[in-house]
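Project outcomes to date are best conveyed with an example. Our students and postdoctoral researchers have been running inverse folding experiments weekly, and each run begins with a structure described purely in tokens. The record below, which covers 240 residues, was selected by the lab manager from last quarter's runs and is presented without edits.
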């Protein structure tokens, strides 16, 4: 019991910081992000919601050499980036961000259920996942995240080529240890993919290749149930 209370105390600030001033999640206002993440590995600081972004496309491509491996292939991700002094991993740049996704289930054309999920990241690489079913709290998980490898994508500018990483997810209060791949194609979209130690790198590479090569790929279909696509939670609105 003491261990469980300690976990709640550690993550309480994370939850509160991610909620809007007008109310709390679960029937109140939707939690909004406190930070828009930087897509530049040399810049840790993001920016506050409502401030203007620098007019540089996150999808700007560099000239590719003919001998370079295709973007998103396992070969392209085979060499991890050495994070140097003054550079930051994607996980570090996700601090104080809140992400959102939802799914709707229909039966004979009638809406039966709305599932919503929020991810909160704090400055110490802890993450809280909160789920809602039809606007009511359903499940909450707390985890410590460790960045194992940081990768580049060849379709990026040099300073924006570290927007993918593999993390170890250790659930707090439990012995569960999972591997996850994170990919930030833009400052307001985050993909999270599940895997194990043997295939997570390949799955992350395939995900990046599909996202960059197919604009309508969302990661929600049943053939990709190990992929979750989140959008940055920036607009406050009541949970349904």
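After processing, the design step wrote out the following sequence:
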């Amino acid at each position: 019991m003491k261990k469980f209370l300690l976990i709640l105390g550690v993550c309480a600030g994370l939850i509160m910081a991610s909620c809007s001033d007008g109310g709390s999640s679960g029937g109140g206002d939707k939690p909004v992000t406190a930070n828009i993440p930087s897509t530049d590995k040399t810049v840790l600081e993001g920016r506050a919601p409502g401030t203007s972004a620098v007019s540089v496309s996150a999808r700007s491509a560099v000239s590719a050499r003919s001998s370079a491996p295709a973007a998103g292939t396992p070969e392209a991700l085979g060499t991890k980036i050495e994070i140097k002094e003054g550079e930051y991993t994607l996980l570090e740049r996700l601090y104080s961000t809140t992400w959102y996704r939802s799914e709707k289930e229909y039966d004979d054309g009638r809406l039966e259920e709305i599932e919503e999920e929020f991810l909160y990241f704090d400055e110490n690489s802890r993450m809280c996942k909160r789920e809602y079913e039809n606007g009511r709290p359903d499940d909450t998980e707390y985890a410590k995240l460790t960045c194992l490898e940081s990768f580049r994508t060849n379709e990026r500018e040099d300073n924006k080529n570290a927007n993918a990483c593999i993390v170890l997810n250790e659930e707090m209060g439990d012995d569960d240890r999972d591997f996850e791949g994170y990919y930030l194609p833009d400052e307001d979209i985050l993909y999270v993919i599940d895997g194990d130690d043997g295939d997570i790198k390949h799955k992350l590479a395939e995900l990046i290749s599909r996202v960059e090569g197919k604009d309508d790929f969302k990661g929600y279909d049943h053939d990709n149930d190990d992929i979750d696509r989140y959008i940055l939670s920036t607009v406050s609105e009541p949970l349904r």
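Helices lie at 2-17, 90-93, 200-213. The first strand starts at residue 98 and ends at 107. The training component of this project remains on track.
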